[in-house]
Every structure is written in structure tokens, then in C-alpha cells.
Amino acid sequence: MCEVFDSNTWAWKQLKHVSLPYSVWLKIYRPCVTSRGACYWHLTNNQVLAFSYEDDKESWEIFDSPEPMSNSDYCVSYAKLVEYQGRLALIYSKGELMELWVMEDHEKKVWRRHRLISLDGLKQLLGHYPSPEAYYNSDIALMEAWPKVVFYKFQAGSSYKVVNAMLENKPDEIFKLQSDFEIVNLRGPWRWPDFSFIFFLFGFSLFCYFVRFVLGL
């Protein structure tokens, strides 16, 4: 079951049930990825579930993920959907290699391998290969190597910044939360009761002015 909150009507709307292939589920500990006005979830069969809502109409679709292109000895053990420069992207990772795939055409579902990144330098620093979690910007990846997280700059000469997580327990998931400066009205659309006190003050002021005018004050 899926419900969508419409900020114009300030109400929830229940949508039609979504049918997934047999024995296929949403991957656990994989947050929804938003890109170009749509929401995406990674499925257990390595496909992608997409949801879009426009002009009061919702649509669902399932499409394939790209296949890793590294050599035959490369076996993917980690895959995660991310947002990269406003586009839907997918990370493949296994040991010393990390592939970044970016969807070049959302309508035709065309993927392109954007980068093949070596993680050997991070292994020498941390003692093991970290897991990619998100992209901070176009050339900095957020890596998890518990109990540390690493901001790994892989362009223009690799560099990194290691940060201690300072948490007692390892979290189930790590994701990027990026705020903006757009004003948000959390109270919802204006309603007449919201103006009642203002109207009262305005009416009371007019009444006082009328009384003073009649009495010649």
C-alpha cells in the first residue's frame, strides 16, 4: 500500500496497490532515491522500481539496472542506488574497485558507466575496503568504514578526510541529507480561521474610529 501527501490539498491520498514480481522485495536499509521528480527503490532482483506523480496522476514502472563491465574476475558484492549531480545513479563495489553508473536518458532508461574508481589507497589507510554510501558532490564519495566515515575525493589526485562516527552502535544505514533555502509553510494552505483575529482587530479599529467621529472626539 502506498499513500502520497499532496501539499496543495494538504491531505493524504491512497494509491493503487503496487505489484512486484514473485519473491521480489524492496532492499532493506536502502533509502528511497529522488531524481528529476521521481522516486526510486532498489529491488532484490537488482531491478529498479520507479514512482512519479504529476498532474494528479501517479505512475509506476520497473526497469533493469546496468550490468557491471569490469573484468571477469570482478564479482559485485555491493550495489546501491544514489543521486549523482541530479541524476539517478548506481554504485557497484567489490574489493578494490567501485563502478559509478549514471542514467543518461530517463525516458529510454539508458545507463552509462561514468567512473571506475580504485579503493586501494583507502585500504592502506583503513586496513580494509570501505563501503560506498553516497556522493557528497561530483567528486567526493561518502564511504563507511565503521567506526569511521570517509569523505573520499577521487578526482584531481585522490585525497580523503576521515571522521570518527562517535556512536556506540553501528547504524543500519547512512544516507545524505541535504537541505535547501526554500521557505516551507508547515501550517499548510491559508484558511479563513487563520485570518479571524486579524479581521477582528480591523473591525474593532473601524468601530472605534466611527464612535470617535460621531462623538466629535
TrEMBL record:
- Domain F-box associated beta-propeller type: residue ranges: 36-118
Superkingdom of origin: Eukaryota
Query: InterPro entries given for it?
Result: At3g26010-like, F-box-assoc_dom_typ3, F-box-assoc_interact_dom
Task: Name the residues that span the membrane.
Answer: 195-215
Q: Any keyword Transmembrane?
A: yes
Keywords of the record: Membrane, Transmembrane, Transmembrane helix
* Record's protein name: F-box associated beta-propeller type 3 domain-containing protein
Provenance organism: Prunus yedoensis var. nudiflora
